[in-house]
Specification:
The complex is a heterodimer of chains A (308) and B (269). Chain A is built from 13 helices and no strands. Chain A is 79% helix and 0% strand. In chain B, the strands form 2 sheets. A 6-stranded mixed β-sheet of chain B has the order 6-7-8-3-9-10, sandwiched between helices. A 4-stranded antiparallel β-sheet of chain B has the order 2-1-4-5. Chain B starts with 11 loop residues before the first strand and ends with a helix. In chain B, helix 6 runs parallel beside helix 7. Classes of the chains: A mainly alpha (308), B alpha/beta (269).
Chain lengths: 308, 269
């Protein structure tokens, strides 16, 4: 049973990745002539045809697509026009910074969001709940680029406590990670609150209280485990959101991650690099969702048995 | 295995108990509503006492107050002569055990039956030493194989037996059974009622049974209290109260509530 489910999960992931890669390929083709975008409006016909040949754009679309897929299958994401290096090397290099930033952000989001949600659920309708819910709503509404700039203004410019940006050490990670954590933190806190509040009203929690189980054990061992499943999903999905949010945050803090690389590639009209970054982003998302699906199967026995 | 109950006075004394809820009117004003209003009941050791009444009569609120799951507004609850504190101690919690209406949902879906029993042993080592897991399961008619199973891997009837086993393991002064059979099919209902009767007769188990099913109450309970709008309107031996009701509400209740033929229960139990 579990083998069939894993095979289905892997098949779905492969199909999603193929679809994402195809959309990335088509988008770069239908958004205009990449050669003209790179060379500018004053490019001559000879320059354009040389560029077309260099990029393989002179071939039929299907042939381009097949060779694109073939290159991807071999792990070849092409070469950057601006850097003259393999796109894969550039992406791997910059990914280190992005993964570092996203990991710290998601750890902050979980470490603060889950307890905040639990406390709000346990004090449902009380002051703590209302303050936490308002803070969570605010966290989901604040534009990240604005929050990032405010944090830079306060902590770097006015008080000089932390560096304003660039990957210069652990301290330089603090402000961008907090900024990036805000959205998933708010989401995780709200979800944990609603899940916990439902579980805390359930019969098995009442039964546990009646049996004399201490409150901490009821909350941490029984209730939180039941409420954790949707949170695990959201943590996975939020990792995906972080990849897109990171573009704004990396710009504000001059963080040399994938987001900055994508922005530079668009600004420099480095079409193969844009395409490679989109494919890599899609692959990362599919991988995250795949991990969440597998984790889901492991955590929830009902999913494992194919009951839900 | 030892006997379940030590000898002493009443297992439960509820005196002038009131439980009020506050809600808001459509104009936003606070309004107090008494779900239980000046109720006094007593349950002797080894008795099965029923609380009957229609929905909203306050019977479940009374049961939850006795179990310490709902804080009373006024009055006193004594278990084996000892008044329940507003914040019940662990041993007081163990003294009053609850068997809930929905057996499957009253067990943690991610905890095996054996692990649930082990958790109780860790929390109440002195109270649970008297019987092994195998012995306690045998007492409620379950095989030892269920120890490794999760709640979803057993039937509703087995789950209710597990709930009863968990309650018994703690050697409670009283078991509050809140509609213990209403989520089960008729045949399993009869088996659970028979088990409760056996436990009462063999182990002198004290049970406060909340039910809207008069046939169940009549078949199992020694005495019964009838509740209406949070108050007790009639009490007495169950056969007498339900066979020859004196109060107008009880008469209406006896006439209107669903009731299986008496013989159906008696044959099974």
């Amino acid at each position: 049973m579990i083998g069939i489910r894993l095979a289905a999960i892997l098949g779905r992931a492969a199909a999603t990745l193929l679809l994402a890669v195809t959309i990335a390929f088509l988008l770069t083709r239908i958004s205009g002539d990449p050669a003209r975008a790179m060379l500018g409006d004053n490019a001559t016909a000879d320059q354009l045809s040389t560029m077309h040949a260099q990029l393989g754009l002179d071939r039929p679309l299907v042939a381009q697509y097949l060779s694109f897929i073939g290159d991807l299958a071999r792990g070849d994401l092409g070469t950057s026009l601006r850097y003259g290096e393999a796109n894969l090397d550039l992406i791997v290099d910059r990914s280190t910074y992005s993964v570092q930033l996203a990991s710290v952000a998601i750890v902050i989001a979980v470490l603060l969001g889950v307890p905040l949600g639990v406390i709000a659920a346990l004090r449902e309708g009380g002051l703590v709940d209302r303050v936490a819910s308002a803070a969570a709503l605010l966290g989901q509404s604040i534009p990240l680029f604005w929050l990032g700039q405010m944090l830079v203004l306060l902590f770097a410019v006015n008080w000089g406590l932390l560096p304003a940006g660039q990957a210069t050490g652990v301290s330089s990670l603090v402000l961008p990670a907090i900024t990036l954590a805000m959205l998933p933190l708010a989401h995780i806190a709200r979800l944990t609150r609603s899940g916990m509040s439902e579980v805390m009203r359930s019969a098995f929690v009442m039964a546990a209280r009646a049996r004399g189980l201490p409150s901490w054990r009821i909350v941490l061992v029984h209730a939180l485990r039941s409420a954790a499943l949707p949170v695990v999903t959201v943590v996975g999905l939020q990792l995906g959101v972080l990849i897109s949010s990171a573009v704004a945050v990396e710009l504000v803090f001059a963080w040399p991650g994938l987001g900055s690389l994508a922005t530079e590639a668009v600004e420099r009209r480095d079409f193969p690099l844009v395409q490679a970054v989109v494919v890599a982003g899609a692959a990362a998302l599919v991988l995250i969702n795949l991990t969440v699906d597998i984790l889901y199967t492991v955590i929830d026995p009902r999913v494992r048995d194919g009951r839900s | 295995m030892e006997a379940l109950q030590p000898e002493s006075a009443n297992a439960l004394d509820v005196r002038h108990l009131s439980v009020a809820f506050t809600n808001r009117t459509s104009r936003g004003r606070r309004r107090a509503f008494r779900a239980v209003d000046d109720v006094s009941i007593a349950v002797g050791r080894g008795e099965i006492v029923g609380i009957v009444g229609e929905s909203g009569s306050g019977k479940s609120t009374l049961a939850m107050s006795v179990a310490g799951l709902r804080r009373p507004t006024e009055g006193e609850i004594r278990v084996a002569g000892e008044p329940l504190a507003r914040t019940m101690s662990r041993s007081q919690r163990a003294a009053v055990q609850v068997v809930f209406q929905d057996p499957l949902n009253s067990l943690d879906p991610r905890q095996s039956i054996g692990s649930g029993l082990a958790e109780l042993r860790t929390l109440h080592p002195d109270r649970t030493r008297w019987a092994t897991d195998e012995e306690i399961l045998a007492r409620v008619g379950l095989p030892t194989e269920v120890l490794n199973r999760l709640p979803r891997q057993i039937s509703g009837g087995q789950a209710q037996r597990v709930s009863i086993a968990r309650a018994l393991l703690l050697r409670p002064e009283i078991v509050v059974a809140d509609e213990p059979t209403s989520a089960l099919d008729v045949l399993v209902q009869a088996q659970i009622l028979k088990l409760l009767r056996e436990l009462q007769e063999r182990d002198n188990l004290t049970i406060l049974m909340i039910s809207h099913n008069l046939a169940v109450v009549e078949a199992v309970c020694d005495r019964v209290y009838v509740m209406l709008n949070g108050r007790v309107v009639e009490e007495g031996a169950s056969r007498q109260v339900l066979g020859d009701p004196q109060n107008a509400y009880t008469q209406r209740l006896v006439r209107s509530l669903p009731r299986l033929p008496d013989s159906a229960w008696r044959e099974e139990s």
